[in-house]
TrEMBL record:
GO terms for molecular function: small ribosomal subunit rRNA binding; structural constituent of ribosome. The lineage of its organism: Bacteria, Pseudomonadati, Campylobacterota, Epsilonproteobacteria, Campylobacterales. The gene is rpsR. Pfam families: Ribosomal_S18 (PF01084). InterPro entries: Ribosomal_bS18, Ribosomal_bS18_CS, Ribosomal_bS18_sf. This is Small ribosomal subunit protein bS18. Gene3D superfamilies: Ribosomal protein S18. Part of the 30S ribosomal subunit. Forms a tight heterodimer with protein bS6. It comes from Helicobacter equorum. It comes from the Bacteria. GO terms for biological process: translation. Belongs to the bacterial ribosomal protein bS18 family.
Length: 84
């Protein structure tokens, strides 16, 4: 059997040369959230460990400030919960 060849993952935060991740910047944080607004793991996003930890803290702060929802109902998935 042949092994599948995957493209090399890269950390978008390292390439952007950011100093920190602002929890108020929802558009930047959306890249690390699934369609049900769960935090995606490093192996899917390609983030480095340092930036993944910073993203998690920023997402948790945004949830605490009610900028991002904690949970979305499975039966009633809304396309964009920010427009409710």
């Amino acid at each position: 059997m042949e092994k599948k060849k995957y493209s090399k993952r890269y950390c978008r935060y390292t390439e952007a040369k950011l100093e920190f991740i602002d929890y108020k910047d929802i558009e930047m944080l959306k890249h690390s959230l699934s369609e049900r607004y769960k935090i995606m793991p490093r192996r899917l996003t390609g983030n480095t460990k340092k930036w993944q930890e910073r993203v998690e803290v920023a997402i948790k702060r945004a949830r605490h400030m009610a900028l991002i929802p904690y949970i979305i109902d499975r039966k009633k998935v809304v396309e964009n919960p920010f427009k409710i």
